[in-house]
Design brief:
The complex is a heterodimer.
Chain A lengths: L2 E7 L6 H12 L4 E8 L2 H9 L5 H4 L6 E7 L2 H16 L16 H7 L5 E4 L3 H13 L3 E4 L6 H14 L3 E2 L5 E4 L2 E4 L6 E8 L2 H13 L4 E6 L12 H12 L5 E6 L4 H12 L5 E5 L11 E4 L2 H8 L14 H6 L7 E6 L2 H13 L4 E3 L16 E5 L3 H4 L10 H12 L3 E9 L8 H7 L10 E7 L8 H10 L3 E3 L2 H15 L1
Parallel strand pairs in A: 4-5, 5-6, 9-10, 9-11, 11-12, 12-13, 14-16, 14-17, 15-16, 17-18, 18-19
Antiparallel strand pairs in A: 1-3, 2-3, 7-8
Helix pairs in contact in A: 1-4, 6-7, 8-11, 13-18, 16-17
Chain B lengths: L1 H16 L2 E8 H4 L7 E4 L11 H13 L6 H9 L4 E4 L5 E2 L11 E7 L5 E5 L15 H25 L2 E2 L1 H8 L10 H18 L3 H12 L4 H14 L11 E7 L2 E6 L7 E4 L4 E4 L12 E2 L3 H4 L11 H4 L7 H11 L3 E10 L5 E7 L1 H7 L4 E7 L7 E8 L2 H14 L4
Parallel strand pairs in B: 2-3, 4-6
Antiparallel strand pairs in B: 1-5, 1-7, 5-6, 8-9, 8-12, 9-10, 11-16, 13-14, 15-16
The chains are: A alpha/beta, B alpha+beta.
């Protein structure tokens, strides 16, 4: 037989919705059949009567009194539930001072909220992205499209429309841009300066802009164009427009251009345009070092050399004594000889391949540059993996956002008896994980228990939310060797591997 | 498109120019000649007995007994099932009704005249809370109260309203918004404001103090008394907005407990219909979501004119029916509805939103484009006939109504 308790609080009023919320919480307690907190009006008492919740005590309550009623399995449970009801009733209202924030769901509402806006950042599933981009272009907004899975035909159509309207169409699949000092999507806090950047690559742009920032210079604007802009179908529409924009921009004194090697017809178009521009260029077509470029341009095969050229030839080096490859090699477990690269940045992986290829190492990658094979075809090769590749990101966030996948693979690489060196990039800045270095270290066994050496670089700046120096420190304290750039990290890994070969 | 923009500008203009005044309370048949014997109006788009939900059937049976067309509920059910009763939507007779929305010939209706356009709209009197016909109740207590409304309160209110020369409703709503009402779930302030104006006229016209006290106690004891006035007002405001060429503004949203229907200005009197959804909310003692009937009633006419769920920011307590129940979450409802409406009402403002006007004029194109369905505050009826109200909450209008309307408008404008 269940137990019913009523309690009356005289001359007490609380809003009925608030009372219903408390009733629901109390009614959900274990052992409680039903509960109601109601003001003792005739209508309410009738409701409670019908629900079997009214005792004589409650029935005597007036229209200005509160009735607390609980029916539970036994008197003890009912009394405890009543106590809980009283607690909830008397609990001071706690509220987050800022409350819930409203965000507009549509572009037009957003524009009414921010009438001066001139850029739309689009990050929606690919099938909807083109329609949203068109909508933005029709409202005379530049577009940065983070979304991928947009067809190349759509890309061409959007870029042509943008060109006609005199607007930038950055992307699809544009991960990074810095416009007038404002970082968009995955980008770092880079000081403003005289170097303009045009990049078909996200992490390539991040690495070069961070190397520039950490070595004392700044960026005027960094314009992403999407990974396919220099394909023959697209014909470099946005790269050419970006050159126009930076040429016209008074704050830009020199221009950095980063891309995978373009198709020859497009390369000619772009290089002809470079030749016609009055500003000096540093060009990096990752891995290409034998291409003829105009007199106002220099060509580099890797990101570090590109940054150094933009820094007027200044050499980027480690602030402390460089790590000794011989010492590192001595730490590798017996019989371990191979390098395993686990990259979150695709261009970081490509740049590392450039160094391995140049050094004559047998190397394989899931995202191979020309001259490099796939891992399946070269079982004894050093393996450099791009974990941001579609094959790894289906149904999960990019490894720059969620390091879980890489941390799992790290465990596998450490226990693989062939792995001597694990090569890593740690990308920070807006959009990236809050503490990638901390997450990485937390997943590693203690340094003494490791049979492989970890070599990493941090792509970021001191002003980034995660702080460059803090991330470096965490890695070093965790026994990870930190190189001053992705290129340095690759070179050191090669040195160690050579000594173990 | 220019014709749509022009149409919507005209629609918004007519909505804002509306001047609704409560001018009378009279028996329904005196203003709706179609309401003869065995004719019954219900809420929502057209529906026949076989598809009616439990509470709607309960209310129909109760109304048949109330009108004396059958001696008891069992006979009434048989009569309804046999096709002996003609069912029509309130909306087809310039009327609206909350929840089951039953209107029959002898029920008293409030008459609201839109003085700017000269049209009139009708709604029955609010029966109070608990077991009532609008929530499917039909026992002797329910029918007894309806008889009192017909024989006592209706005539007395009629006399008072006529003597007063009518009550302007727009300003009452404006003040109610600043006092925490959103005019759907919460009508405490507006009921009090009406009562203040009404009481002296009731006193002047009443024939005895016992009757007067009964009337005042009934109104004063019913926090939702104003809801039905707000609904008649909504209907009176929206009817002149019907039939504007090209306009994509919604002129009515209503539900019969089975189907949700909307009408759009530029597509005439076509109903765009989809299955009703289930409200989310809080339940009275002893009831749960398992007892709930899906969404019902013509009351969504108040959201159609920009109050109710659209004015949630004015009434943070109501947001407590779902989610966190914070003032900021209430504001989000109103701001979000601003994304699917063509304008704001400068006379109906919300203090907590820096006196922003309520979002006004639902544009079916914006609803489909943003994927944001109108939010409606609502009571929840028990799914079985005869039980009554079991809770209250918040529900969305089904998106399918709006996609159909957009297509129909496109066809009409030859832009399919």
């Amino acid at each position: 037989m269940s137990a019913l308790i009523n309690q009356v609080r005289r001359a007490f009023y609380m809003d009925s919705v608030a009372l219903m919320r408390i009733s629901r919480s109390v009614g959900a307690l274990p052992g409680v059949a039903t509960a109601a907190l109601m003001i003792g009006s005739a209508t309410n008492k009738k409701l409670m009567q019908d629900a079997g919740l009214l005792s004589d005590e409650g029935a005597a309550a007036g229209a200005n009194d509160l009735i607390l009623a609980v029916r539970a399995d036994d008197p003890g449970t009912a009394a405890a539930a009543l106590d809980e009801a009283r607690k909830l009733l008397d609990k001071p209202a706690t509220s987050d001072r800022n409350g819930e924030e409203w965000h507009p769901k549509s572009l037009d509402t957003a524009l009414r909220q921010l009438p001066g806006a001139n850029v739309a950042l689009i990050s929606v599933p690919g099938e909807f992205a083109a329609a949203e981009a068109r909508r933005a272009l029709h409202r005379q907004l530049h577009v940065m499209m983070f979304s991928d899975n947009v067809s190349i035909a759509e890309e061409v159509a959007l870029k042509q429309e943008a060109k006609q309207r005199g607007l930038l169409m950055m992307g699809p699949d544009c991960g990074t841009a810095i416009l007038g000092g404002t970082p968009l999507a995955f980008a770092n806090v880079v000081p403003r300066g005289e170097i303009g950047i045009i990049a078909a690559s996200g992490t390539g742009l991040q690495e070069v802009s961070c190397l520039i920032a950490r070595n004392g210079k700044g960026v005027s604007h960094a314009i992403g164009v999407g990974g396919r802009d220099l394909k023959a179908e697209v014909g470099g529409i946005m790269t050419l427009m970006a050159i126009d924009a930076l040429e016209a921009d008074a704050s830009t004194a020199q221009i950095v251009l980063i891309s995978k090697p373009p198709e020859p017809s497009v390369a000619k178009l772009v290089l002809d345009r470079v030749a016609g521009c009055g500003k000096p260029f540093s060009i990096c077509f990752i891995g290409a070092d034998d291409m003829h470029v105009p007199a106002n341009a220099g060509l580099s095969a890797d990101l570090r050399s590109t940054a150094e050229r933009a820094l007027a030839g200044r050499r980027i080096a480690s602030s402390g004594a460089p790590a000794s490859a011989a010492e590192l090699a001595s730490r590798a477990g017996p019989g371990r000889t191979k390098v395993c690269g686990l990259f979150s940045g695709g261009t970081m992986c490509a740049e590392a391949q450039v160094f391995f290829r140049r050094a004559g190492m047998v190397v394989a990658s899931n995202a191979p540059i020309p001259g490099v094979g796939k891992p399946a075809a070269a079982p004894d090769a050093h393996v450099l993996l791009d974990l941001g590749d579609d094959a790894y990101t289906v149904g999960r966030p990019h490894p720059m956002i969620d390091p879980t996948l890489r941390n799992d693979m790290l465990g596998g690489a450490l226990t693989d008896g062939r792995t001597a060196v694990i090569l890593l990039d740690v990308v920070i800045g807006y959009g990236a994980h809050d503490d990638p270095a901390g997450e990485l270290i937390a997943h590693l066994p203690p340094a003494k228990a490791r049979q492989a050496i970890l070599i990493a670089s941090v792509c970021g700046t001191q002003e980034d939310p995660q702080s460059y120096s803090r991330q470096v420190q965490v890695l070093q304290e965790g026994g990870v060797v930190v190189a001053p750039s992705n290129a340095h990290a690759a070179e050191l890994a090669i040195e160690v591997a050579r000594r173990l070969a | 498109m220019q014709i749509i923009d022009d149409g919507n500008r005209e629609a918004l203009k007519r909505m804002l120019e509306g001047d609704p005044v409560l001018i009378d309370v009279v028996p329904a048949r005196s203003v709706m000649p179609a309401l003869r014997e065995r004719v019954l109006l219900h809420s929502g788009p057209p529906i026949e007995w076989p598809r009616m939900c439990g509470p709607m059937r309960g209310a129909v049976a109760g109304a048949i007994v109330f009108e004396g067309w059958a001696p008891d509920l069992d006979t009434a059910v048989k009569m309804a099932a046999s096709g002996a009763i003609a069912f029509h939507p309130n909306h087809h007779f310039d009327a609206v009704g909350p929840m089951t929305g039953i209107t029959t010939q002898s029920m008293p209706v409030m008459v609201v005249e839109n003085r700017r356009f000269g049209n009139r709209a009708y709604c029955t009197l609010n029966e109070g809370l608990g077991k009532v016909m609008r929530f499917g109740g039909n026992d002797a207590e329910v029918l007894g109260r309806l008889a009192w409304l017909r024989d006592v309160l209706g005539p007395d209110l009629g006399s008072a309203v006529r003597a007063a020369g009518g009550f302007e409703l727009k300003s009452i709503v404006a003040r109610g918004l600043s006092m925490g009402d959103e005019m759907h779930q919460r009508n405490v302030a507006c009921t009090g404001l009406v009562m203040r104006q009404l009481a002296p006229w009731l006193a002047r016209t009443s024939r005895d103090s016992g009757r007067l006290a009964e009337a005042l106690a009934f109104i004063g004891g019913n926090d939702q008394f104003f809801l039905n006035m707000a609904m008649a007002m909504g209907k009176a405001i929206m009817d002149p907005v019907r039939g504007i060429e090209g306009s994509s503004v919604v002129t009515a949203m209503c539900r019969n407990g089975t189907d949700f229907g909307i009408r759009v200005s530029g597509t005439g009197d076509t109903w765009f219909v989809a299955p009703v959804e289930m409200p989310q909310g809080l339940y009275f003692a002893g009831f749960s979501a398992a007892d709930a009937n899906p969404d019902m009633g013509d009351s969504a006419i108040v959201e159609t004119i920009g109050i109710g769920g659209f004015a949630m920011a004015a009434s943070p307590a109501v947001a407590g029916f779902v989610g966190a129940g914070s003032a900021s979450s209430a504001a989000i409802y109103t701001r979000t509805m601003g994304e699917i409406t063509v304008g704001e009402n400068p006379e109906w403002t919300i203090p907590a939103l820096d006196f922003q006007g309520v979002p006004t004029g639902i544009d079916v194109r914006l609803v489909v484009d943003t994927g944001l369905a109108p939010v409606i505050n609502t009571g929840i009826a028990h799914k079985q006939a005869g039980v009554g109200q079991v809770g209250a909450g918040v529900v969305r209008a089904p998106m399918a109504c709006f996609t159909q309307a957009v297509r129909a408008l496109a066809r009409r404008l030859n832009v399919e």
